[in-house]
Predict the structure.
Amino acid sequence: MTNTQKALALIHTFADGSTKLAESLPAPDYIQHNLPYGTGRAALISSVSDLASAPVKTTVKNIRAFEDGDKVFLHRRDIRRRADCLL
């Protein structure tokens, strides 16, 4: 599995709630660069679990992905819904 494939699988855990993937894919020193989420593996797993339990599910649409060395960049559109607002 390429780093791009791993990144795409990982970001889709926000939509499908797969905490097993969220536990297995990130490197031990995983850094989250999306400000609304905490950094590190434990914070990622917690976010995936929280989103999976939401009454209305998150959707993830990837626009493009590219790699530069060991870094992967994703351009995507996420829609996270709550009962009282659209985030």
About this structure: DSSP finds three helices and four strands in the chain. The chain has a mean pLDDT of 84. Helices lie at 3-16, 19-24, 41-52.
